Amino acid sequence: MFELPEIVNFAKQFNETLKGKIIKEGSLGNKPHKFVWYNRTHEEFEKLTKGKKIGQTTSKGKWLFIPLDPGYVLVFGECGGKLLYNLPNSKIPKSYHLYLIFTDDSFLTFTTQMWGAMELYKKGEEQNRQYVKNMKITPVEKDFTFEYFSRLIDSLLSDKKRSVKGLLTQDQLIPGLGNAIAQDILFKARLNPKFPISELGKNKRKKLYEEIIATVDEVIEKGGRYDEVDLYNNPGGYVRILDKNAAGKPCPVCGKKIEKIQYLGGTCYFCPACQPAANG
Ligand SMILES: [Zn+2]
Questions:
Q1: How far is the CA of 263 from the centre of ligand 1 (A)?
Q2: Residue 1 has what pLDDT?
Q3: 35 Cβ partners below 8 Å, 6+ apart?
Q4: How far is the CA of 193 from the centre of ligand 1 (A)?
Q5: pLDDT tens for each residue of 109-146
Q6: Which DSSP letter does residue 235 get?
Q7: Quick check: 99 and 108 in contact, CB under 8 A?
Q8: pLDDT of residue 279
Q9: Which end of the chain is more exposed for a tag (fewer CB within 10 A), N or C?
Q10: From the CA of 233, how far away is ligand 1's center (Å)?
Q11: Which positions of the chain have pLDDT values less than 50?
């Protein structure tokens, strides 16, 4: 699944490559998919995309906003899979969930892996979509300050069970972070995924905040994670510290074996020595 850095990177690549292109023809998928969220019929989508020009793409959290001028915005959200720019005469993927061919015969295809929103809105109405409306501040915005982050934690303290993994990956508290990037952030902050946020003192809060910013920046700079591909089908350059390849191997810091647990809807990897479960 794409997380904030991959989405930021897509927006950049859309503006480098797709901005200004005119859509010759657009269509939704050639294969039904239960977990792709559309808000248009095939006919509507075809009619509304024809002749539109790609504007300046923006992103927020795990959402991409691609203006189709005049008057519409194509929205991709909470997605994973392959979102690809294809040169004229390239092979069309066997199955796809969205297809746009431009007047220069290059084309865009999106084949989702798990789920995702692929919706077309009248300009402005996309801001009212659930999860987009009232989205909290994301780590790439200048308002994501330590003071803001600390206030966010304070506002959650009544929830006795909230852990740092929950803070990073649940309820869109910090939009754009997901299960992949959270692992490395927690490893670098030396926090166990289950560590309760109620026990985060000022120093631990500060360290966690700094590692969120540093990790997000690093993944963006390296063009996304190595296990995702960009608009040109190139894998990102950020190699995760903790993922399935690290399980059972020595921790890169202390040499203890990296452990694996199921927790909060996903697999977590952590070092039992560097990331102790309680305050020490
Ligand atoms: Zn360790």
A1: 19
A2: 92
A3: 112, 114, 115, 116
A4: 14
A5: 999 988 899 999 999 999 999 999 999 999 999 999 99
A6: B
A7: yes
A8: 63
A9: C
A10: 34
A11: none
120 forms bridges with which residues in the sheet?
74
Q: How far is the CA of 187 from the centre of ligand 1 (A)?
A: 8
Distance from C-alpha of 66 to C-alpha of 76, rounded to nearest angstrom: 8
Provide the 10 A C-beta neighbour count for residue 209: 20
Distance CA 183, CA 66 (A): 30
pLDDT the model gives residue 172 = 93
**Beta-bridge partner residues of 107:** 86, 101
Using DSSP bridges, classify how beta strands 98-102 and 23-28 pair: parallel, antiparallel or unpaired: antiparallel
Q: What is the C-alpha separation between 171 and 239, in angstroms, rounded?
A: 26
Q: Residue 258 C-alpha to ligand 1 middle, in angstroms?
A: 7
Rounded CA separation 234/227 (Å): 10
Q: How many beta carbons lie within 10 A of that of residue 166, not counting itself?
A: 20
Taking a C-beta distance cutoff of 8 angstroms, is the pair 37, 78 a contact? no
Q: Which residue has the tokens 């809105």?
A: 121
Cβ(76)–Cβ(62) under 8 Å? no
Q: CA-CA distance, 244 to 125, in Å (whole number)? A: 40
Where would I find the H helices in 145-201? 146-156, 164-169, 179-188
Q: What is the pLDDT of residue 115?
A: 87
The answer to whether the beta carbons of residues 213 and 205 sit under 8 Å apart is no
Q: What is the pLDDT of residue 202?
A: 95
DSSP β-ladder status, 36-37 and 116-122: parallel
pLDDT score, position 35: 86
DSSP 103: T
